[in-house]
Amino acid sequence: MSSPLYIRMHAADNVAIVANDGGLPAGTVFPDGLRLVEHIPQGHKVALEDLAEGAVVRRYNVVIGYALHALARGSWINERTLRMPAAPELQGLPMATVKPPALAPLTGYTFEGYRNADGSVGTRNILAITTTVQCVAGVVDTAVQRIKRELLPRYPQVDDVVGLEHSYGCGVAIDAPDAIIPIRTLRNISRNPNFGGEVMVVSLGCEKLQPERLLPAEAPLVPMQRLGTAPALPVADAALDVVCLQAEEHVGFMSMIDSIVRQADVHLQRLNQRRRETVPVSELVVGVQCGGSDAFSGVTANPAVGFATDLLVRAGASVMFSEVTEVRDGIDQLTSRASTPEVAQAMIDQMAWYDAYLARGRADRSANTTPGNKKGGLSNIVEKAMGSIVKSGSTPITGVLAPGEKLREKGLIYAATPASDFICGTLQLAAGMNLHIFTTGRGTPYGLAACPVIKVATRTDLARRWHDLMDVNAGRIADGDATIEDTGWELFHLMIEIASGRKKTWAEHWKLHNALVLFNPAPVT
User: Of 57, 166, 297, 468, which sees the most CB atoms within 10 A?
Assistant: First the structure.
């Protein structure tokens, strides 16, 4: 990209972003005569007109700020030159007012997945070992490494063994009202479709989060059912399978490890009987998320994901978008797209709950925009929110999930989560996600052990430098080498290949994954 280029998102915008790698120096003249009065880095905003002090600054046809002082045409617009608007009120919002024309159903697309006894479908065949408390994490990690080394080679149909490590379980106000959030999160993750209905728990013994509380009898476990033509093994008893480290039969560290390995072998035998079968794309449960965002996120990667989101919804699949603080400033766009006033109100309720949560911690929404976001051209959370929402596509929002809840419907779903990559991914796994799409502009090696993560780069420079970490280069859109629609279809077809196990993501290839982080707004004792 040699000639100077800027990208303007809407005809009413009075700023645009510089598209050229490395940015452009002072004195650069664009084809329309715009001259830069100072160096502007790639992705950062240039004033398209003279701006008086206090003047509205508009991008995406949305007010993203007010000029702190007079700025000449061609000036660099950034967080130091803008005053952020006040957060939108949660009263008087449009409620289910936008009725987009129905998109034609998308039929005939399938993938090869693992059908579970409860009707859900997995994209991977994984043994997960649930932990009730952080205290057992080291023991479980040692056991998992031994299981992978000694047992997993015997079971070629099993993709992996993972320990569901977290920092919850004891030293917390376990009976506080908000404690339900981390508890149901871990409960529902344990039953993620990629784990095949096999639930194995390692407990210390003295923790507050006892196994029976985590997985109560009133929500019985569904035993694994035989699939394919392999000989049947005895069906597992539906009782909770727990290895308790403080049990008297454990004499020494290796006794604990032996016990975990022995129980894991039982589950691996059953998981090894699973076989992929052809299922409709409607069985996909896709979580979309962005991290390490930049000004190109809302120009290239997120619009392409939004196009793919529409394709998935048209095919009958479920798609979750999330991150409360990254959509809060566009709440009017979301409530207006709700399928019903009740769905709109549910979104408002989640925003109000999170507002109160932030207020208790004396934090505000401006804390969301990171130093990396700003270096990538995002001046504040308002601008960031506009680019984030685009991942949700254009179809009506048909449901809302509170943190840790399990998804039980198809369509476009707002799953309320914090914006932290790791907490968002954890909560989407709890909702039942079997495939994850993650966009990034600054770059991050984020990954999940329980679910394939497709990484989408917003810029060609990032895709080139991180060629063995990024799965899709959406930067080609800004380069003029691809359209949003082209990239959306590319992503849609790649999802089918990865969900079917015919391809692996780079994160899977390198076995990159982050620890689970349970959202715990309850007090710590």
Answer: 297
